[in-house]
Specification:
This protein is about 35% helix and about 20% strand. It is α+β, with helices and mostly antiparallel strands and about 450 residues long. Strands 4, 7, 8, 9, 12, 13, 14 and 15 form an 8-stranded mixed sheet that branches. Strands 1-2-3 form a 3-stranded antiparallel sheet, with no helix packed on it. The protein has a two-stranded antiparallel sheet with strand order 5-6.
Length: about 450
């Protein structure tokens, strides 16, 4: 307590909060070495200086994004995120998908820092569901009471409790739901399509061809390319649902998606998801509910598909891969495996991997685990969000690190440059004042002329 680089000197959450330098903090100096490229980027210029480099940090509550964005452009905030409304003004996306600041931002000396969050946003399949999970014991519970025992057992064996059939159905849906399109439309391109639970920056994540999900992607001309809808339809037919119709019951295939998204802004996203399923002829029914009811349904396993996400607690692959460990099953054990996924070989490899040091042997085990997940497809792997931060040229030592929460002590502000640029960008506009004064004089002259003519008329 009280041993950090700052202390909270002003605390008004409804207006502003101020962190001031702790005068008794002398335990750290700015590092003298870093990653490749840090020296060239100027990130080691303050090597050896005592931390923190900034004496005071002020957080101000802005209740609306427009005044916040305007104040950033005027130089009254040193750094800023980018809202969807301001994205086109701030960022240009090149032909290869690379992001850079716009010409207007560059003219002000504003730079862009990007980093992929150690988070994954996914859509899970419930492994206990007879259709998408293929569990026979669940199928018996939900079979139609009107069917005869022989007919019911025949339908279950042919349709409900066929793990191979459910696996191909999941693979077909995984190909059809185009998360590259989702990122482009709803996230302004700020994200990357996930190939597995592991985001970039976590040990076990592989770049390039060796890291793609071969069930969903092909490697074409040096980039991953999502497989065609024709491939997805072929898998759907092999699963027993040609053109989205169950070949046993002759009924359209209906999949239920549980979500807490029910606001006006969520409608477009849900409509987009329905269109993805329509590519296969599959009907998607969205079941929106409040958060407590949704959590209760997940705990009881009363879902087919559901939206979920995970933020890393610590930067280790165990913190993501445990989400699919059988011992973490939500229904059976009350754990974090909301899909209730269970694969004995995956569980065995997970137990072997989870406490290992990061070394080639651990990487090979993770590769085997991801291969199992790719084939089983217990999730639509979704995407990893990407963080975009703009900063003015007077703010130094800013390096994206989504896991670190102690970055403020490294930041340095060139206050002289900031005051100079603020003065240049916020010159008072005097012409409205002069124009108003001139208009007032003309009006006064006109009144004087009118009154003078009236007096002359009366005297005559």
């Amino acid at each position: 307590m009280g041993s950090g680089p700052y202390y909270l000197s002003e605390n008004n959450p409804n207006l502003r909060m101020v962190l001031s330098k702790n005068p008794y903090y002398h335990s750290e100096q700015y590092p003298a070495d870093g990653e490749p490229g840090d020296l060239q980027a100027g990130l080691l210029a303050d090597a050896g200086h005592p931390l923190p480099l900034t004496g005071k940090v002020v957080f101000t509550l802005e209740k609306e994004t427009i005044p916040y964005w305007s104040k950033f452009l005027q130089g009254y905030y040193d750094a800023s995120g980018i809202s969807s409304d301001s994205f086109d003004q701030a960022v240009q996306v090149g032909g290869g998908g690379e992001a850079r600041v716009s010409e207007a931002m560059r003219a002000q000396g504003i730079t862009l820092s990007t980093s992929v969050a150690t988070s994954t946003m996914y859509t899970g399949f419930n492994w206990l569901d007879p259709v998408v999970g293929g569990r026979c014991e669940t199928a018996k519970r939900v079979s139609s009471p009107e069917a005869s025992p022989e007919e019911g057992e025949s339908k279950r064996s042919a349709s409900s409790c066929n793990p191979e059939r459910a696996r191909k159905l999941r693979q077909a849906i995984s190909i059809a739901v185009d998360f590259e399109e989702f990122i482009s439309i709803f996230a302004n391109g700020r994200g990357i399509a996930a190939q597995s639970p592991l985001p970039p920056g976590i040990f076990g994540y592989r770049e390039g061809e060796t890291g793609i999900n071969p069930v969903v992607y092909d490697w074409v001309h040096g980039v991953p390319e999502r497989k065609s809808i024709a491939t997805a339809k072929r898998l759907l037919a092999e699963a027993g649902y040609p053109e989205g119709v169950d070949e046993v019951t002759r009924q359209p295939l209906v999949i239920n998606l549980d979500t807490t998204a029910n606001g006006a802004g969520d409608k477009s996203r849900l409509d987009w998801m329905r269109k993805q399923f329509n590519k296969l002829g599959v009907q998607l029914v969205v079941r929106s509910t409040d958060y407590n009811r949704f959590q209760d349904k997940v705990r009881r396993g009363d879902t087919q598909m559901f939206y979920y996400g995970w933020n890393a607690d610590y930067p280790d692959p165990e913190n993501f891969l445990f989400l699919l460990d059988g011992a973490q099953g939500k229904v059976a054990h009350g754990g974090e495996n909301a899909s209730n996924y269970s694969n004995a070989e995956y569980d065995r490899l997970f137990d072997k991997m989870k406490n290992m040091e990061n070394n080639p042997e651990r990487q090979l085990i993770i590769d085997q685990m991801l291969a199992i997940l790719h084939d089983d497809s217990p999730w639509l792997w979704g995407y990893h969000p990407q963080n975009y931060v703009l900063q003015h040229g007077w703010l130094h030592n800013v390096k994206p690190n989504v896991m670190a929460t102690n970055k403020l002590k490294y930041w340095r502000v060139d206050a002289m440059l900031r005051d100079q640029m603020r003065g240049r960008w916020n010159q008072p506009m005097l012409w409205p004042l002069w124009s108003g004064g001139a208009a007032a004089l003309l009006f006064a002259f006109w009144i004087w002329r009118v009154l003078r003519k009236r007096e002359q008329a009366c005297s005559l």
